[in-house]
Amino acid sequence: MIKNIVFDLGNVLVDFDPPRFVMEKTANKDQQKMLMSEIFGSVDWLRFDKGTMNREELLTSAKSRLPKELHAIAEDLLDTWYIGLNAIPQMEELPKRLKEKGLSLYILSNAPQDYYLYEDKVPSHSIFDGIFISSDWKLSKPEHEIFRTFYSHFRLNPAECYFIDDSAANILAAEETGMDGFHFKRNFSALEKALTALGVL
């Protein structure tokens, strides 16, 4: 029996769209490509998410690979990227509906410490029973350890949890640690059907 619904953040609850963030800083296509590659597409961003690299270290590393004329833009981008996050419209009501059905709600997400600057943008974040952010634990999906630590921290039985994530690799890792899930690709009607089939909607 499913008692807990576990949500990812980016592209599940909020719209994480780095190309849009970059385009808002420069209209130059070559500059956009470089900023995407050296910031959001870099291994350093994964470290930033994991909490093993802070924002200042990420910026210093990116500047070492970017031309000098992009340094100020890169700094501005890293200082403000999260301002461009918006709630995914269909997800604004779903947590409330699930909560009304008696489900416990959790967030399990790869996210940097900047999460605490934008948590108010997360739909219904105040009604979640627990929030587990990768950078707090120096772990990241799809590593099995982050799932096991999540279950242990909140004393959850993975068989009683259902995970919603936009990454197939993360869903597979969840399943390998005992938690079934749904690969969310903005296919909200399919998600509703899956939750209804589980008897939680």
Automatic annotation (TrEMBL):
Gene3D superfamilies for the chain: HAD superfamily/HAD-like, Putative phosphatase, domain 2
SUPFAM superfamilies reported for this sequence: HAD-like
Domain of life assignment: Bacteria
Keywords (A to Z) from UniProt: Hydrolase
Any GO molecular function: hydrolase activity
Listed PANTHER family: ALPHA-D-GLUCOSE 1-PHOSPHATE PHOSPHATASE, FLAVIN MONONUCLEOTIDE HYDROLASE 1, CHLOROPLATIC
Record's protein name: HAD family hydrolase
Organism placement in taxonomy: Bacteria, Bacillati, Bacillota, Bacilli, Lactobacillales
